[in-house]
Amino acid sequence: MKVLIAGETWTKHIIHIKGFDSFTTSEYGEGISWFKHAMESANIDLKHIPSHQVAEYFPNTLEELKQYDVIIFSDIGSNSILLPINTFTNGIIQPNRLNLIKEYVKDGGNFAMIGGYMSFQGIDCKGQYKDTAIEEILPVELYATDDRSEHPEGIQMEIIQPEHPIFNGITGEWPHFLGYNKLKAKPNATVIAEHNGNPFISAHAYGDGRTFAFASDFAPHWGPKEFIEWEHYNTFWVNTVKWLVER
User: Fold this and answer.
1) Most buried among 47, 122, 135, 187, using CB within 10 Å?
2) How far apart are the first and last CA of the chain?
3) pLDDT digits (tens, 9 = 90+) for 57-83
4) So what's the pLDDT on residue 166?
5) β-pairing, 9-18 with 110-114?
6) What 3 state SS string does the chain have?
């Protein structure tokens, strides 16, 4: 099984001000390690494209996409997919890669979006997936506004379908989460878990493929230490990827 994931990295450029003087430092960070270890635990072949490389290296053809059983976006905005260097810098026509993903799923591929500040609509609507091919294939509709729902007090999702295969082998209470993207379930969606009536985990079929939406994060900050170090973390994500592929 081959999985492609785009996103889950960032670069910080920090200004340090000390009285009259200032200087800058830069830091690179990744939030992929926990999910990567989960895939490795089941010998699933994972290719990761860091956020700063997505515009240039994300697949440009349907044939390239079809090399993967599952494609995942996590904390990566639509502009990074829509604006390859040849288009943004050189003004050259390129394929609309969101539309390609729609065709990929329609033909039997599988797609998932994981929540975050640059997922779904995200912070200040900068995820900007509203009214795109990605919204069309997801089991959820997106709000036209900043869709973050912050919960520093911690919240528990309510599992609606405890017998769903993605929960195989998982027992006991789930860890809390610190926030999520607020979404609206489509009429034909399967809502697997929710919070206050908002779909937290949802899925459905599109064409011959499947899509999946996890409204929170699989890494900090919305995914706290209690989640990423949870004994069933690996099991849940392996189950999810396998369910997307298995028919």
Assistant:
1) 122
2) 14
3) 999 999 999 999 999 999 999 999 999
4) 97
5) unpaired
6) CEEEEEECEEEEEEEEEECCEEEEEEEEEECCHHHHHHHHHCCCEEEEECHHHHHHHCCCCHHHHCCCCEEEEECCCHHHHHCCHHHHCCCCCCCCHHHHHHHHHHCCCEEEEECCCCCCCCHHHCCCCCCCHHHHHCCEECCCCCCEEEEEEEECCEECCCCCHHHCCCCCCCCCEEEEECCEECCCCEEEEEECCEEEEEEEEECCEEEEEECCCCCCCCCCHHHHCCCCHHHHHHHHHHHHHCC
Which amino acid is located at 86 in the chain? N
Tokens of 225: 């230490």
* Cis ω for the linkage preceding 221 (within 30 of 0): yes
**Does the domain at residues 2-11+26-245 carry the CATH identifier 3.10.290.10?**
no
* CB 148 within 8 Å of CB 223: no
